[in-house]
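help with these tokens:
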Amino acid sequence: MGNSIKKPMIGTICGAIFVAFMAFLIIVRQVILEDYRNIIETNDKKFAEVLSQNINYNLNRCFDFGSRVANYPGFLHATPEFQKNILRYSLEKEPVYEFLAVVDKDGKPIIYTGENFADVDKNIYEWFKVMRRDAKPDISPAYYSEKTQNLVMTFVQSISENDEIKAAVVGDIDLDSLRDLIHDFNKNNSCRAYLIDKNGTAIAQPEDGGKIYNYRSMAYSTVAKDEEGKVEFNRKGHLKLRESSFMAPQGLTNAIRAAMKGESGDDFFVDDRQRRYFCCFQPIKLPMVQTSWALVIVHPTSEMIDALDKIIYRAMFGGVVIITLIAFAMFKFAEKITAPILEMAAMATRVRNGDLSGQLNIQEKNELGELANNINHMIRAIRANQEKSAESEKRLKITANYDALTGLPNRNHFLIRIRKIIDRSVQARFYGALLFVDADKFKSVNDTYGHAVGDGLLIEFGKRIVDTVGNKEAACRYGGDEFLIFLMGYNKEDTRSICNTLVKKMREPFNIAGNKFHLSASVGVALMPKDAKTLDELMEKADAALYVSKGNGRDQFNFYEEGMVNESKNLGNDF
């Protein structure tokens, strides 16, 4: 056979197994990733909560000391020495303050720590920017301090008397303690933290390299240095800072900016090296002030996902090997199944083409063996039915085309066949003769001795005709005791010889049922193409010649001659 069901069957089953296996691996991967995400999300949120509490604790301590100075009873009316002692005491209790100062509403110093107020910071005095005309404390964005060369922010708290702002307490808070807190966290954990102030400046982030990053302007600042590595100053004597733009992963930037807007959430993102990260972001509400910072926890997931993917790839490879082995085993198994099926299919093809001679030799003791046995029974049944059908068809054909009594061709079959022969042979100068034969005295014998004897006579009469012409198909029983004989290729002399022999044979006694009967035959002959070129004309003229033979005393034959037809018609002869 051209095709077998083995390959599509095995391919379909193995393909289904492979697809199911791949779907299983994908689902497992997604479940593991989802669990992993839930775990790191929970852990990172806990980390963010702890960091937020630590940040708030540190800032609350700073703000609390500054607030104590601002709310100290009678501070503005105390002696300058007392005021300075209060400030110094506060610095000792909270060393993160770079300095403390009390300034009036215009920013002019009333009292301050240090020797020279103007030398405190040569950069722009941020406390002037953040000082408000109300009693609420506030802080500045983080900025670079020229004095400490560290990242600082300025805290401001107004001093009021009788609901009127008289002065303000200001101080620079060193952010190194917060930076150390974040850096220690980043060093000791698999995740990384970003602490961003309200202006987008990164107070601390992983691997900042001494640079000050701003995620609002997407630029970082560094202290300008000359070729020898010395710090550069501008004309006013301030430190010169250089700004450069930088690119951060879009997912990280989006998370930072969302947290700066007061939003919280989590997401995955990919950096420029195609490393994957999970980030958890939230705002940090600072104590005492109406300001929020942003805290972003970034968790690298590439290693874990890559490890998971390696496991998946190995599982895929193992699965392919296993499926290959399954396919091989199935091929052997399918071969055992399909071999009998192919044999049965070949047998079905032979049966379809009419060959019923074979039998299946399948000895399987299962459904295939049972099916093979049924097919063998079916073939034998078909063969038997065909034999019966052939026999029935043969009998039907005989019944339809042959006379049931004499066994000679019947009238209809004979005339159709002879007509075809004549039609095909007219143009080839065909020679032949048509004989009309009548059994003389048959009616009287039949009426006297009965139909059984009459039938016996007709059977014997037909046999003698066949013995004479030598071909059963050359004669037919035309009806009753009349017979037709067609001699193809016979000329007049040959036909005359046949007629003599036939007439003599019919004179011999007929032995029927132990009795002898004497009959004779009257024969009329028409020749072709001499007398006629069509069967109808031949029959008409042979019939006319038969009439002459019977009219002249029977037991003879006559060839057709001109005028015999008219003579028979005039006498009312109607065959």
About this structure: The mean pLDDT is 79.
